[in-house]
Amino acid sequence: WEQRKLGDVASSFDYGLNAAATEYDGQNKYLRITDIDDETHEFSKSDLTTPLADLAMSADYLLKEGDLLFARTGASVGKTYLYRQFDGMVYFAGFLIRARIGEGADPEFAYQATLTDAYKKYVAITSQRSGQPGVNAQEYADYQLMLPSKTEQQQIGMTLRSLDDLITLHQRKRLSIRQRSPVWS
Asked: Exposed, middle or buried by CB within 10 Å (0-12, 13-18, 19+), for 51?
C-alpha cells in the first residue's frame, strides 16, 4: 500500500454546469447536490430534472462510468456520488466537482475511501471558512488515501459495494415492513 493524493489518481477535476433545472425531458438528467441521497449516496430519481442549457454545447458536463462527484459548498460539503451507467445520461450541476479517476486506480475504491472517518475529518477541517463551508477542487485533489495494487483496489471496492447494497436492501425491507405494520398507541 502506498499513500497517494487523490489528484495523483484522477486525470482531471472539473466544476459542474451552471444552469437552471427545468422539467425532465425523459432522457437528459441533471444531478444536483440535493439529488444525492444522504444515506445511500445514490442518485435519487424521485424528482428528475433536465439542465436548462444548450446540451449540444454541454457535453463536457456529461458523466462517464467511474466519475466521482463531490459536493463543494454548504451543509452538504463532502458528500460524494459515484456515477454508474445504469443512471442514464446525466449532467452534473455547478455546486459539484467531478474527479475523473484515471486508469491507475479503481473508481469504486476511491469512492469507498470517501465514506471513511478519515475523509470526513479531512472535509471538516478543510471546509472551515468564514461564512459558508466549502472545499474546492484543489483541496479535494490534495486528499491523501492509501492505495494497494489496482487488483486489490478492485476486490476491496467490489466487496464494500456488495456490503453497501446488502445494507440498503435490508433498510428498504425494514422500512417497508414498518410502513405496513399497524401503529399501536
From this structure: buried
